[in-house]
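At this stage, I wrote out one protein's amino acid sequence and its backbone structure tokens, and that material follows here:
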Amino acid sequence: MRLVCAIALAAVCLPAKAAPVTLVLQFEDSYSPESVAAMKREVASIVAGSGIQVDWRLLSELQPAETFGNLVVVRFKGACLMQPVPYLMDERGYFAFTHVSEDNVLPFSEVECDKVGNSIRPLMSKAQWRERDTVLGRALGRVLAHELYHMLAKSPHHADSGVTRSALSPSQLISRKLKMTRADLEKLGQ
């Protein structure tokens, strides 16, 4: 892995800046701008040590002739906002998945917003409920960072801890901090 070193009182080595990743968001249903802003902040916080820069775009903003060097597309299914009254649905299964073809990880992922929202709802405090769209955005950011790892590292594998573990619990999705392991950050920057 390449490193860029800076001198300021002490030597600090940071990963070299990788090519920007254009992350295209496609929402199938309604979404909260607050949730999207919180999701962006959470992803940026989680991948900060990798050296990658994410250029966030909505599918509706893309021009027909645009080209991208490093493109990732994520489709968000269901309502990506916290509804005051939940509707009942089966919460078993995945929060998100990344498409794979013949053992190759593809740069396409899907996030189940309703499942994420309904899974965290019972654990949210009154204070968190007042900031519900921000809390949902944090949870979506962690789910997205997990899938982004698979797509950028081109790896179906999981870590034993952190945001890239095989399954994230609802309490981990809304906890104060959830990071990516140093080894996984290094895989992102390669």
